[in-house]
Write a structure and sequence with these properties.
Elements (H helix, E strand, L loop, with lengths): L4 H95 L1 H19 L8 H25 L34
C-alpha cells in the first residue's frame, strides 16, 4: 500500500520502464510467431471455406422454408401483442400508479422524516395557519348564524320598568310591603 505521493510516482515510473522494456523484448518474438503461424492459418482457411459454403447451401433452403412458415405467425403475434397486450398492460400500469399514489406520498413523507431523525433534526410543523383558518371559519359561521336567526325572530317585547318601593312619605302603609331593612309585622 502506498503511503505518499512520491512512492506512487516512483512506482508509476518503474511500471512505465518495465512495460517499455517488455515491449521491446517481446516485439521480435511476436512478429516471428505471427510469420510462423500465417501459413497454417491460410491453409486452415482454404480447407474450411468449401465446407462452410456447402453447409450454407444445405441450410439456406431450410431457413427460407422456416421463414416462410413462421412469417405469418410472427406477424399475427406482433399484431396481437400491439393490439391486445400492450393496451392492457398500459392500463394496468396506470391503474397501479393511481392506486399507489397515496402510499408513495406517505413513503416519501416517512423517508423525509426518517432522514431528519437520522440527522438529529425535527420537521418544522406550522400549526398557527390551521388555527387561524379554524378561527376565521368559526367567526364566519357565528356571523352567518346571527344574521339568519336575527331576521326570523320577532323583536322581544320591551321590559316594563320595575315599580319603585313605596315610602312613608307618600302615605302608603308599610303593612303591605315592608321596606328594606325594616322589621316587618307579622
Amino acid at each position: 500500500m502506498f503511503r505518499s505521493a512520491p512512492e506512487v510516482t516512483i512506482s508509476k515510473e518503474r511500471l512505465v520502464d518495465t512495460w517499455g522494456s517488455a515491449r521491446t523484448t517481446l516485439a521480435p518474438h511476436l512478429s516471428a510467431a505471427r510469420e510462423a503461424v500465417t501459413p497454417y492459418v491460410d491453409q486452415a482457411s482454404a480447407r474450411v471455406a468449401p465446407v462452410l459454403d456447402e453447409a450454407r447451401s444445405r441450410v439456406l433452403p431450410a431457413v427460407e422454408t422456416a421463414r416462410d412458415r413462421l412469417g405469418p405467425t410472427v406477424d399475427t403475434a406482433r399484431t396481437r401483442l400491439m393490439e391486445d397486450v400492450v393496451p392492457t398492460v398500459t392500463a394496468a400500469v396506470e391503474t397501479a400508479r393511481e392506486n399507489s399514489a397515496p402510499a408513495r406520498a406517505e413513503a416519501k413523507e416517512r423517508a423525509a422524516a426518517a432522514l431528519l431523525a437520522l440527522q438529529g433534526k425535527q420537521r418544522k410543523v406550522r400549526r398557527w395557519p390551521t388555527a387561524l383558518v379554524c378561527l376565521a371559519a368559526g367567526a364566519a359561521a357565528g356571523i352567518a348564524a346571527g344574521v339568519l336567526t336575527r331576521g326570523r325572530q320577532a323583536p322581544p317585547p320591551p321590559t316594563p320598568f320595575p315599580t319603585p318601593n313605596p315610602t312613608r312619605d307618600q302615605g302608603q302603609s308599610s303593612a303591605t310591603t315592608p321596606g328594606p331593612g325594616s322589621a316587618g309585622t307579622g
